[in-house]
Amino acid sequence: MNSRRLACFLLGLWMGGALLMAWAAAVSFNSVDRVLDRPHPVATSQFKALGRADARLLLRYQVAEQNRWYFEKWETAQIVMGALFLFFVLFATKENKVVLLLILSMIASVVVQHILLTPAMISLGRMIDFLPPDAPSRIRSQFWVLHSFYWGMELTKWVLGLVLGARLIAHRSGRSGNAGQQFNLVDKANHRHVNGL
Question: Which of 116, 148, 173, 180 lies deepest, with the highest CB count within 10 Å?
Fold first, then answer.
C-alpha cells in the first residue's frame, strides 16, 4: 500500500467514525421507547412505580449522559487522529499545502466543537434534562442554537473531508506527466557528453 492509499484509508477511518457517531446520536433516544414498550419483567414493576412519563424522563437522561460521554471522547480521539494524520501526510507523502490546509481546517473544526460548543451544550443539556417537554425555556432555545452550530461544524468537517478525499484520489504524486520523457532526454544528452560524442 503506497502512502497516498494509506492516507485515503486513514481519512476513511476518520470519516467512518464520524458517520458512526452521527448515526448513534440519531437513534440512541429511540432505545428509550423500545425499553418502555418491552421492559424486562423485573423492570416492569419499577417502571409502574415511577409512572411511564417519569421512567421515560429518567431513561432519556441516562441516554443523554451516555451520548455526552461518547462525544467528548470521540472529539478527543479525533484531535489525536487528526494530528497523527497531518504528520503522516506532511512527512510520508508529497502532498501540497492545500491538502495540509484542508487537514488543519478539519482539526480546527473539531477543536472548536470540543472547547467551545460541547462543554456549553453539556451544561445546558443537564439543565433541561428534567424539564417537561412542553415547558417554555430560554435554556432549551439556547441549547438548540448551540446544537445547530455543532452540526453545522460537523457538516463543514464532512465537506472538507470529501474535498480532501477527492484531492488525495485525483492528485498524482506531484511529478508532471512528462517527467519521464524529460528524464530520458537529459539522460541521453549526458550520455553523449560522457562518451565524448
Answer: 116
Nine-digit cell string for 190: 549526458
d(CA 99, CA 105): 10
Contact 107, 83 (CB under 8 A): yes
User: Domain spans of the chain?
Assistant: 3-169
Radius of gyration (C-alpha) of the chain in whole angstroms: 26
Q: Are 107 and 26 in contact (CB under 8 A)?
A: no
**Nearest Cα to 59, choosing from 130, 140, 107?**
130
Q: Is the pTM higher than 0.70?
A: yes
> Which residues make Cβ contacts (< 8 Å) with residue 29, sequence separation at least 6?
60, 63
Q: Note the pLDDT of residue 44.
A: 87
| Phi-psi label, residue 137: left if phi above 0, alpha if psi -120 to 50, beta otherwise | beta
pLDDT at position 91 is 92
Query: Predicted confidence band at 181 (pLDDT cuts at 50, 70, 90)?
Result: very low
